[in-house]
Each structure stands twice: as C-alpha cells, then as structure tokens.
Design goal:
8 helices, binds farnesyl diphosphate, alpha/beta, 6-stranded parallel sheet
C-alpha cells in the first residue's frame, strides 16, 4: 500500500506520519530493545558498539514518540536476568544511563520529558543509580512524555513483591483473601500510576516477552519486527503505530 502510494505521489509526499490517525495514538508504548549484539556482529564490531548504537536509538525513538503525542514510553534497558552476561558487558551497560543522560538531558528537558525508572535500585552500581536519580529529580515536574527505563526489571520479581505486599495486608487485617481484586495487584506493581501499554514493540525478530510487564501486557497489541534495535528508525516506529491503528481491540468482548 505504502509502495503504491509512493509510486503515485512520489516518495517525498508520502510521509508515514501523515498517514496516521492522530485521534488514535497509543497512549503507552513499551519496547523490548533487542538485537544490539547481532547488529554489531553483522558489522564485525564488538557487542558494546551495538549497545552504544542502541543508546542513540533511545534518543531517536523518544523524540519520535514525543512527536506523535505518545504519553508514556517504557524501554526495557536491563533485565533482572541480564546480570548473567559477562562482567565487562554488564559494566558497559551500567555506564550507558549516565552517558545518555550527560549528553541528552538538556534536549530532554527542552521537550519537557519526565524520566522515571522501573526496577530494583538496590543492585545497581552507585554511579548508575546516581545518574538516574539525578535525572528523575530534575525532570520530575516536566509535563511531557513520561520516559521510563526498565532497569534491573523483571516481571516475575515485580509480581512476587506485589503478592508479598498483599499477603502483608492480609496478615495486618486490612484485607481478607476473598477481597483480593485485580486493583490490589495493580496498586502494588511498579506501574501503579501508569496505564497498561497499548502497544508492545519488540525488535530483532525474537517473538517472546522475556519477563517484561507480563501483567500489564495482558491486553496490549504486539508488533514484532526483524529490524535490530540500533537501526530502528522513526519510520519503523510509525509503521508499528499504523499497524496498531488497523487492529480492533476487543478486550475479550465481541
Ligand atoms: C538486548 O540486545 C539489549 C539489551 C540487553 C540492552 C539494551 C540497552 C540499550 C538499547 C541501551 C540502553 C540505553 C540507555 C540510555 C539505558 P542484545 O544485546 O541481547 O542483542 P542480541 O540478542 O543481538 O545479542
């Protein structure tokens, strides 16, 4: 379809953004940014070069999401399982937030981006945590897109923590087991004040959730692409939103 329109009108006149329904932009988009290592390998580069290039894609896609009017963008930057990677790679990944924020915070402030973190702070190196907390504090009053880094995040851990808190409420006599509702779970998840993602994107051709937002993605639309994260562009992002707009969300109804 896009090709046919391009043939009819010429490449420059068919901008993907113009073909999107601005009244139906997903409020919350979550992304599993995968394929940094394979992208690097395919170019004969070390894996770290892939992660570094992936960091550039974070900026590009944040700006693209902001242009579309997306309210929440949640990016899976480091999972609770990623500690199993070689020490040098973990150390490199843990330096990316501070490098990213040192170079991009000014632009993000101008766009009124609010930075948040979703994950377990306790295991993060001090330098990583400091950079992230500093950015969270500086952007706390911004009223633009909410950019959440899932950092040392794992959905099963998140759910176990929520169940523990509910168990504590039961033990304290605040709740009986029969009264437990979805809303109790929701309020104890790390996303308590954030709507569930409308759209999940995963790059690099892998078709799995990898312990990412398992509760919150229950009714999300999913869009997968073979493109590796470092080469994921605004056009790819808009293509995902266009596909989202073609789908009818029924939430289990008819
Ligand atoms: C998965 O690709 C990617 C990661 C584990 C890291 C993602 C991190 C970034 C994109 C940069 C984050 C930037 C900031 C600012 C926090 P992979 O390494 O598993 O790729 P592979 O499957 O091809 O090996």
């Amino acid at each position: 379809m896009l090709q046919r329109l391009r043939a009819l009108f010429g490449k420059a006149s068919v901008k993907p953004l113009q073909m999107l329904d601005t009244d139906n932009i997903p409020q919350h988009i979550a992304i599993i940014m995968d394929g940094n290592g394979r992208w690097a390998k395919s170019r004969g580069l070390p894996r770290m070069a892939g992660h570094h290039s992936g960091m550039k894609a974070v900026k590009r896609i944040t700006m693209a999401a902001d242009r579309l009017g997306v309210k929440y963008l949640t990016l899976y930057a480091f999972s609770t399982e990623n500690w199993k990677r070689p020490k040098a790679e973990v150390e490199f990944l843990m330096k990316l937030p501070q490098e990213f924020l040192a170079s991009e915070l000014k632009d993000l402030m101008e766009k009124r981006v609010q930075i948040r973190m979703m994950g377990y702070k306790g295991d993060l190196p001090d330098h990583t945590l400091k950079a992230v907390e500093d950015a969270i504090a500086k952007t706390a009053n911004n009223d633009g897109i909410v950019l959440t880094f899932a950092l040392n995040y794992g959905s099963r851990k998140e759910m176990i923590e929520a169940v523990r808190s509910i168990g504590q409420d039961v033990q304290d006599g605040k709740l009986s087991p029969g009264q437990i509702e979805e809303s109790h779970m929701q309020q104890y998840l790390l996303t308590a004040d954030v709507p569930d993602p409308d759209l999940l994107i995963r790059t690099s051709g892998e078709l799995r959730l990898s312990n990412f937002m398992l509760w919150q993605l229950a009714y999300s639309e999913m869009w997968f692409t073979d493109v590796y994260w470092p080469e994921f562009t605004e056009e790819h992002f808009n293509e995902a939103v266009r596909e989202y707009q073609r789908r009818a969300r029924r939430y289990g109804g008819l």
